[in-house]
Amino acid sequence: MLAVNYLISMPPISSYLKKVYGTPNRRLDKRRSPPNAFSPLLGINPPAPYISGCDVERDFSGFQHDALRLQLELLRRALKLTTAAFLWASDRGQIQLLSIVSERDDILSGPFERGAGLLGGLLHGREEVSLAKVSKTYSGLVYYQNPGQTGSAIAMRCQTAVGDKEEKGFFILTADRRQTGVWADEDRALLRLCADKMIKERDFGELLSSVEHERSLLQKICGGLRELNRGLGLESVFKATAGAVNNLLAVDFIAISLLGDDIHYIAFVSGGRYEELTGMEYDCGEGLVGQVLKLNRPLPANASYRGPAPVFSSKHCLDGFKSLLIVPLCPEKGCPIGTLTVAAVRDDIFGGEERDFLGLIADQAAIKIDLAQAHELISKMATTDGLTSLANHRSFQHGFDVMLHRAKRRESPLAMIICDIDFFKKFNDNYGHQFGDQVLKAVAGVMARDVRREDLAARYGGEEFALILENSDKQGARLMAERIRCDIAALKFKIDGREVGVTISAGIAAYPEDARLKSEIIELADQALYQAKEQGRNQTVLASSH
User: In terms of Cα–Cα distance, which of 517, 520, 527, 513 is closest to 404?
Assistant: First the structure.
């Protein structure tokens, strides 16, 4: 009973390591504890350096391995064993050697057949199998390469409270020694006690590993959500959402689709060859994305994809992916405003936990996208004309300042065109303001279509429009003004059964040819416009240089 009492009262294994044997990876004595017992085939790493209490979360698996090996060595010494081993018998058909300490050199690393030797006696519900006298030719101790040198042996079945989620089975503690004879009750009690202790340490390790895994996931989620909260514009929110997903899972494709009027369109894509899908539009009910928008729940149900089911449409399937999950983007439990599509080449990466976290990311992304859309709408309303969708007068003045400053810095030309719809008051008086608004929209549409991306088109006031052309002198501006004038003259409006046309007059002034100050450029362009009207309208006039 001395050995039993000694083991019951011994201090926690983490503090016992250094006191008795130094660091756990140090040789316990000159007797062999074979390296092949920790073969990579078993997925077991060699013992790690001593681990203090504060380091447990960082490397618990190494600590757990060392503790198990030390426990076996204590047991081997207490009972004068040749070998003590701890194994895992999987329901899938093999027995794996997890840890072993031994005086012998001929240790096999396994794995071993499930029904082999002494261990096979535990497969039918028996808790213990023992041999009081082992034959010299007995090969039932499967972890030995050579039979013999064994007098008696015992194997015990060990239960665990924390079962593996994917793999079922049980642990086995085995012991053997050179002397023959029945295993005494005290020896059995000590073996069972040590087995229970190792199982409890293993269960605690599993729980701690699970907590650490969840903590790590939460850190990743919080980091991703932090980036999401920093995003203001839609593009920054899209990138932060993709970053949060990539931080959580190793995926190969991410797409964000948004809902429009009877369509859904791809607003963002991250995934190599599929980035060309950005901007594509599809019917609202088309593809798996359309079904997710309709049902407001994630699809596919099993998060797997074998193709060729249409993800966005029948024309755009995703090839080469085995995992697929499309999650609705619902701000604050409302109707979906879009979807988050995530795919991976690897199979089965969207487990229950991962799906929950992706749902959390999607919920937060939906809120931020909704806010970003509202922010962009407000910004657009503040900077654009509500009728024509061109820049308003305030935006024009600010844009002119910025563009003129850039032209001065670059020493490049800049031109201004002021346009006025000819006889616009008569349109309003003869046909009504609704028809006048129709004319204004059509004229603005021509200007928006004809100007270059770097130019600025604005409604200057009433029936007047203004354009700022970067890197353009007066002659270049004249070509643009004439193009716009001709395109507007080609417009035809039907009212009261007849067609009505419209024309414009335009005046042009340029920096630095005509003036260097904004106020002077505007004044000269306005004077040129007045001259165009005086000369008969429907024409373009260049300002006279000072």
Answer: 517
Q: Supply the pLDDT for residue 161.
A: 53
* Residues 289, 271: Cα–Cα separation, whole Å: 17
Q: Does residue 483 register a pLDDT over 90?
A: yes
SS in 3 state form for 476-531? HHHHHHHHHHHHHHCCCEEECCEEECCCEEEEEEEECCCCCCHHHHHHHHHHHHHH
Q: Which of 505, 528, 504 is nearest to 515 (CA)?
A: 528
Residue 322, classed as helix, strand or coil, is coil
Helix axes 185-230, 352-383, angle to 10 degrees: 10
**Residue 48 DSSP SS3:** coil
Instruction: Identify which has the larger pLDDT, 517 or 308.
Output: 517
Angle CA(463)–CA(469)–CA(472) in degrees, nearest 5? Answer: 135
- Residue 327: what are its φ and ψ, rounded to 5°? -115, 135
Mean pLDDT over 195-211 rounds to: 81
Instruction: Say if CB 66 and CB 51 are below 8 A apart.
Output: yes
CATH architecture of 393-542: 2-Layer Sandwich (3.30)
pTM of the model: 0.52
Confidence of residue 160 (pLDDT cuts 50, 70, 90): low
Q: What are the beta bridge partners of residue 329?
A: 338
Please report the pLDDT score of residue 448 as a whole number.
Answer: 94
Taking all residues of the chain, what is their mean pLDDT, rounded to a whole number? 81
Q: Which CATH number fits domain 231-379: 3.40.50.300, 3.30.450.40, 1.10.10.10, 3.40.1130.10?
A: 3.30.450.40
Annotated catalytic residues are: 463
Model confidence pLDDT, tens digit, residues 226-248: 777 776 678 888 888 888 888 77
Q: Which of 285, 302, 289, 213 is nearest to 255 (CA)?
A: 289
The HSE-up count of residue 541 (CA atoms within 13 Å, CB side) is 22
**Percentage, residues of the chain above pLDDT 70:** 85
Whether residue 303 is predicted with pLDDT greater than 90 in this model: the reply is no
> What is the rounded CA–CA span in Å between residue 77 and residue 362?
57
H, E, C per residue of 193-226:
HHHHHHHHHHHHHHHHHHHHHHHHHHHHHHHHHH
Determine what percent of the chain is predicted with pLDDT higher than 90: 37
Amino acid at 471: N
Give the β-pairing of 504-511 and 540-542.
Answer: parallel
Angle value at C-alpha 225, between 222 and 230, nearest 5 degrees: 130
Please tell me the predicted confidence (pLDDT) of residue 167.
57
Beta bridge pairs of residue 95: 89, 112
Residue 26 is predicted with a pLDDT of 32
| Contact of 159 with 198, CB cutoff 8 Å | no
What CATH homologous superfamily does 2-211 map to? GAF domain (3.30.450.40)
Nearest of 150, 168, 171 to residue 96 by alpha carbon: 171
Q: How many CB atoms lie within 10 A of CB 132?
A: 12
Report CA-CA distances (Å) from 41 to 112, 337, 398: 12, 49, 69
- What tokens does 243 get? 């970053």
398, 260 contact by CB (below 8 A): no
Q: In the structure encoding, which two tokens stand for residue 14, read together?
A: 């983490």
